[in-house]
Every structure is written in C-alpha cells, then in structure tokens.
Predict the 3D structure of the following.
Amino acid sequence: MIFDTYSFPFQDGRPAVSSGYGLRRHPMQKTKKFHEGLDYPKPWGTPVFPSRSGKVVEADWTEGYGMLLVIRHSDGATTRYGHLSRIFVRVGQMVQRGRTLIGRVGSTGLSTGPHLHFEVRDKNGKAHNPRTKIGRR
C-alpha cells in the first residue's frame, strides 16, 4: 500500500545527509558511538513532516536528542525526529505522512548546528538504517 511507505520527512525531495547510520566518532563527545539514524542538515525552522502516518507517542525534551518527537505506525514501528526547535503536535494525535506539520528543524540537545536527526525503529525498538526504508514498508 503506497500510502504506508516511508518518505523523506521534508516536502522538498531528497535531503543531503551530514551523518549516516552506523559507527562514527561523535562530533561533540569525541568518542566512537553507533549513530542510529541519519542527520539531515537544514536551515533553522525548516518544516518537518511525518515519514509515515501514525500516532504521536512522545513529544518532549530528552537527553541528547533535545526536542524529540516519536510516532508509532500501524505495524508497531516508530520514527523519531530529534533536535527540533518546535513541536506542533501532542501525544495521542494522529498524523498523516507528508501532510501534518509536526515540527521545525532546530539544534536542541547535543547538536553542532541545525539539522533533523531521523530514526526508524522496528516494533521491538531495534534501529534500522532509514536509507533502506524510504519508499518501503
């Protein structure tokens, strides 16, 4: 079902990636850590949209991620949107892929500049490379 596939969390097509999924040297902590998502550099305030439709299950400040939004999807998977400057939705709200404005890019938490940290996790909480999910269920 095409409406339940993952899409990029922006309306302007394929974004650049400043930090990929996998083992890396953390830019602030200067230690090797596994990066469980992708970092999309965007100007401060760029609109962010859901990668898939679902229900907001978390919308709050968290350690490291700063302003974090988590959406649970029909199959139990979640997408996570970190370092936001603003969040426009609340826990329990249903959101539509590519249509509901959920937040704006920021640099909150452990961040070196404005970008969106984007993660895809399965129903068991295991992180998956978002690049392998875009356009798929």
